[in-house]
Here is the input.
Amino acid sequence: MNQPHEHSSLTARVKPPLVGGRAEEAIQADDSPLQASQQEALQARIEVLNQKLVASTLARVQKEGALRKSLEQLQQRLAALTARQGESQLQPEPGWAAYLERNAVSLLALAVAVFTLGLHLLD
Here is the structure.
């Protein structure tokens, strides 16, 4: 029962050919409002996607700029710290700790020497 109804809806869409080769023009004229609305919808979708692309690209560029600026600041701080550390190593520190550190005398060797000296003094 449903099949004749479906056939009738399918056959209602087919237009009879016009005389004089104008059948294509008639079909295109009927489909042109549909094509125009589809084209407008596609164009609107393209514009939305382009706007999203521009926004995401701009956000990425801004993020990269912020990261680059942060990296430059960190490099400057590191350079200043390295320079300060170099200056402090050039200036001798007063006292035995500085002397021992500069001459690479270990505290363990110093402790053994003091202990040995103490043993000899007790005898």
Observations:
- The helical segments are 2-13, 23-90, 96-102, 107-122.
- Confidence is low (pLDDT under 50) at residues 5-12.
